[in-house]
Design a protein that fits this description.
Helices cover about 45% and strands about 15% of the residues. It contains ten helices and nine strands. Helix 2 (about 45-55) packs across helix 3 (about 75-85) and helix 6 packs parallel to helix 7.
Length: about 260
């Protein structure tokens, strides 16, 4: 593992967001003991805020390659990151921080870059302009093809995410994933699990916040439930997400007839 512990330094602003969140206020020191750590909790418990703060403190980049400083919506994450102390076995700059919203914007931007480059190349090809002008745009198309293969513009968000994730994977990386199931079907979530298992063989470390019982089943992961503002270790079968999903699938009408 790269990241060993996170701890919150004493603050004078515990009554202000994000330090007023119980999971932040009671954080003290948290130790990562396995290459995969999963945070589970209801909406509003602060798991996304915690991940954003860790990403800021670790100086992670966004999945699109930009620094966290480039995103105004992460201002509070940077404030929290400055208050977190991280200890490392070996500090890594590889990896990324994933959020569904930023990923979708980035994929749309890639598709627009590809579309504009293709149009420009075609315009130059059928005009009297110097054909050398097309070179930068052809280079853009080549680089996109090398990273993501053919047909990026035809991929769904789920397919694009898996393609992008695989292309962005680097050996010895720290990957902080906030609800990575958002663009993925259940089948594609299994594909993501397969990718994560491959990355573990390349010394990857994962910190994941999720609502997905499928991702919670990642083999040999440490699972922590945010309960009463504390990170409580839990077994997979103890999680309400798992129990409720299992009960619903066994007998949907038992739940639906009361709604």
């Amino acid at each position: 593992m790269h990241l060993k512990t996170i701890s919150l330094q004493q603050q004078d602003t515990f009554n202000e967001y994000p330090f007023d969140l119980p999971v932040i206020k009671q954080l003290e020191t948290f130790q990562f003991q396995k290459p995969i750590t999963i945070f589970v909790g209801d909406n509003g418990t602060g798991k996304s805020t915690l991940l954003e703060g860790i990403a800021a403190a670790a100086e992670s980049i966004l999945i699109g390659g930009d620094n966290l400083d480039s995103d105004d919506s992460l201002e509070q994450a940077r404030v929290l990151g400055e208050a977190l102390k991280l200890s490392w076995s070996i500090k890594t700059k590889k990896g990324f921080f994933f959020r569904a919203n930023e990923f979708i914007r980035y994929i749309n931007r890639l598709k627009e870059m590809q579309r504009e480059a293709k149009l420009t190349v075609e315009e130059i090809k059928h005009s009297e302009r110097n054909q050398l002008e097309a070179m930068p745009h052809m280079r853009t198309l080549h680089e996109l093809q090398q990273l993501y293969g053919d047909g990026l513009e035809t991929l769904s968000h789920g397919e694009s995410f898996l393609t992008l994730f695989q292309a962005r994977f680097k050996k010895d990386g720290l990957y902080i994933l906030d609800e990575p199931e958002a663009p993925l079907s259940p089948l594609k979530q299994l594909s993501l699990i397969s990718l994560i298992k491959e990355m573990l063989n390349e010394n990857g470390q994962f910190i994941i916040a999720t609502h997905s019982p499928i991702l919670m089943a990642l083999p040999d992961a440490d699972i922590y439930l945010i309960e009463d503002g504390k990170l409580q270790p839990k077994a997979y079968d103890e999680l309400e997400h798992v129990q409720l999903t299992r009960d619903f699938l066994n007998d949907p009408m038992r739940f639906l007839r009361h709604l």
